[in-house]
Structures are given as C-alpha cells and as structure tokens.
UniProtKB/TrEMBL annotation:
Name of the molecule in the record: SCO1/SenC
Organism of provenance: SAR86 cluster bacterium SAR86E
Protein family (similarity comment): Belongs to the SCO1/2 family.
TM region(s), chain numbering: 7-24
One Pfam family matching this protein: SCO1-SenC
Protein transport is among the record's keywords: no
Ligand binding (Cu cation): C84, C88, H179
Matches recorded under PANTHER family: ELECTRON TRANSPORT PROTIN SCO1/SENC FAMILY MEMBER, LINALOOL DEHYDRATASE_ISOMERASE DOMAIN-CONTAINING PROTEIN
The entry's keywords: Copper, Disulfide bond, Membrane, Metal-binding, Transmembrane, Transmembrane helix
Keyword Disulfide bond: yes
C-alpha cells in the first residue's frame, strides 16, 4: 500500500470520527429553550422559584421524608393514587420513559429523582404507594401523608386536591376524579421551579426537562 493511500485512509477515518463525535454531542447536549418556548411545550417556569414550608410524609417501612429529600436534586413530583384508572399511569409512564431516555443518552441521574405523593391517604398505605411508584422505576419514591399534611403541601404547590365527604364509604373514589394532573419540578435548593401541564407530549417533555435542569 502506497504512502498516499495510507494518508488518505487515515484522513477518512479521522473525518468519520469527527462526524460521529458531532452527532453524539448533538444527541447529548440539550437545546436551551426560551420562556415562550417552554410555555408552548407545556412547562410554566416561575419568574422566581417559590419557597414552601417543611413537611413530613412516609414511604416504605414508615421512613419519614421531609424537605431535605430535595437537597441537591432536581425532583419531579406527581400527586396521584394507586387505584387511578388512567391519568396517573400515563403521567408516571411519561416520567419512566424520560429516565430511560436520559440513561440511554448517558446523562447523570444521581441529581435527579421522582416522587409520587398519594392523594388518597385514606386507602393508600406508605408501602403500597411506594411499591406502585417503583413498578415504573426502582429509583422512584412513593409516599403518603395524613390528610392535613397532604392539603398543606397541595395548597402551597398549587395542586387541586378534593377532600373526601365526611360520610365517605370505604373505596369511595368520586372525590379523587378531578385531581390536578400537573407534574411539578422542584430545584436542588428545594424550591418550586415550575410545572408541566397536560396534555403531555413525550418528545416535548424530554426536550423541555433537559433544557431546564442542565446548567448553562
């Protein structure tokens, strides 16, 4: 093989490596969206992140969670319940697919987490809501607070939660049907950063989430 042919092959290989590197970089580097673009994609970002008070809720084995759980992590919170027929599985599957895609693209997930808080504390236990969350992804956390704590959290995070009627019978579900279906985003400082609104589009959700949580 002549010297010129060897040089040509080396140049071709270098060119292919450069193209591959650019392609991978494009896949893993998020495009930063403007506030109007975020809104069009279904995410409302507060001009200034909102503070909210401490809380205590329980996960599996009655482990107590409070605001410290948010420190150093981007947290997606969804308020749902284990017997939810449609909306909750759709929202939880969306978050599951987000995590799967980020993992495939090589993103660090150590500073990201997902928390499901039940709006049906009369029927959901800390154990079964945590098991429900983990059925979507082993890293997800499910938790339950008593009704006053739930209402306090929901009010501060602008989530509509309807209190059950006083004469509620066991397994009564009517008060659960109109719950808010937003997915909330808490920043690593434990502040309410914004929320994703339905109807959800998986591609827009992924693009928007990456734009918001990736340092600039």
């Amino acid at each position: 093989m002549s010297k010129n042919i060897k040089i040509s092959l080396v140049l071709i290989i270098l060119f292919m490596l450069a193209v591959l590197s650019l392609f991978i970089n494009k896949l893993t580097t998020p495009r930063y969206l403007s506030a109007p673009e975020l809104l069009v994609n279904g995410f409302y970002q507060f001009p200034s992140p909102k503070e909210f008070s401490n809380f205590q809720i329980l996960t599996s084995n009655d482990i107590v969670l409070d605001k410290d759980i948010f420190k150093g992590k981007w947290t997606l919170i969804y308020f749902g319940y284990t017997r939810c027929p449609a909306e909750c599985p759709v929202a939880m599957s969306l978050i599951k697919n987000l995590y799967s895609t980020l993992e495939l693209k090589g993103f660090n997930l150590d500073d990201k987490q997902a928390l499901l808080v039940t709006i049906d504390p009369e029927n959901d236990t800390p154990n079964n809501v945590d098991q429900y969350a983990k059925a979507f992804n082993e890293s997800f956390i499910g938790a339950r607070g008593d009704r006053p704590m739930l209402l306090s959290m929901a009010t501060q995070l602008n989530v509509m939660v309807v209190e059950p009627p006083k004469n509620m019978q066991h397994n009564h579900m009517e008060h659960l049907e109109n719950h808010s279906n937003n997915i909330l985003l808490i920043n690593p400082d434990g502040q309410y950063a914004g929320f994703f609104r339905p109807p959800f589009d998986e591609e827009k959700f992924l693009l928007t989430y990456q734009s918001v949580v990736t340092p600039r």
